[in-house]
Amino acid sequence: MANFRVGISPNMRDSQGKPVFDPAALEVLDDPAVAWEYLPSFEAEFSAATAATYDALCVMQSRVTRATFSGGKSRLKLVARFGVGYDTIDVPACTENGAILTIAPDGIRRPMGTAVLTMVLALAQKLVIKDRMTREGRWAEKQDHMGMGLTGRVIGLVGFGNIGQEVAHLASPFEAKLVAHDPFPDRAAAARLGVRLVDLDALLREADFVCVLCPLSDKTRGLIGPRELGLMKRTAYLVSMARGPIVQERALYEALAARRIAGAGMDVFEQEPTPPDNPILKLDNVIVAPHALCHTDECMTRLARSAFGAAVAVARGRVPPYVVNPQALQHPALRGLAQAKAL
């Protein structure tokens, strides 16, 4: 009988109880070493009881905190994120308690790159405004809402990692100019993709589309505020696709309401779900999405396969790909995995 228990976030099912990914992805878990199930209910923060029940958790939105490991009964060896951000996970607590944290860059790269470009194109073509005009019979106004062609325009990438590089790749046929800012840039990738590396202020001044794609950290929290928005062109758009707290939302609202920038596309917010009375939702120069623009069948299936593969690897005594905290491998509970890696 399998004794490695895997719990899957219940919000990886839709309102009908069906998986949001191709059910064939569950075949990855068809391994005699593994017993899996959906968690019985959604937990905003995983409890110590849950950590004492499962060896691996495949998680979407739930938080893993130090309290998750309290009580000394945790059997958790793996937290596998359906995504790449891990600001909801207490990484030091995982490491200290012998739990590996993995992410899924292989699953998110193309879907997120496509989502970013979708937002850029929707803003450039003024898609939402034109949709509303058509529904309201305001055809006579169409010349008042001219779009912006991308040829020769500047797309600025705040963050030039996995997703930023994919955006650059996908944008190349549009003949836009590409600039990027990253504190640890991949210069070879920039040269290959025709991306000019610049400092953040230069990017903000030059870009027609400022795409925020960096991870949330102490250094990036509030990175885009009044000063930064003030550097942008009045004709420029902000595309916020990483984590909401990177952009100071009140400052963005004021810039949008005063038309100091042309508009914004927001897939993320400081508070999620964002309240229905958020004043940004009342503006006509903003496109919004519920932190789900990249959620497609392709995305969810790739994320599921990656997370489930990580669980099977640990169950089989192997180190999975994309480990965030390799120091955890030195924990006594994971010494077998560390030896497997050495071999």
Set out the fold topology.
Elements (H helix, E strand, L loop, with lengths): L3 E5 L25 E5 L9 H4 L4 E4 L18 E4 L9 H6 L3 E3 L2 H20 L2 H9 L18 E5 L3 H10 L5 E5 L5 H7 L1 E3 L2 H7 L2 E4 L13 H6 L5 E4 L8 H9 L5 E4 L19 E3 L8 H19 L19 H8 L1
Parallel strand pairs: 1-2, 1-3, 3-4, 4-5, 6-7, 6-9, 7-8, 9-10, 10-11, 11-12
Task: Provide a quick synopsis of the model.
By secondary structure, the protein is of the alpha/beta class. It contains 11 helices and 12 strands.
Tell me what the structure shows:
The protein is an alpha/beta fold and 343 residues long. It has 2 domains: 4-103 and 296-342, NAD(P)-binding Rossmann-like Domain (Rossmann fold), CATH 3.40.50; 108-288, Rossmann fold, CATH 3.40.50.720. The protein has helices spanning 48-51, 91-96, 105-124, 127-135, 162-171, 187-193, 200-206, 226-231, 249-257, 297-315, 335-342; strands spanning 4-8, 34-38, 56-59, 78-81, 100-102, 154-158, 177-181, 195-197, 209-212, 237-240, 263-266, 286-288. Strand 9 (209-212), helix 8 (226-231) and strand 10 form a beta-alpha-beta unit.
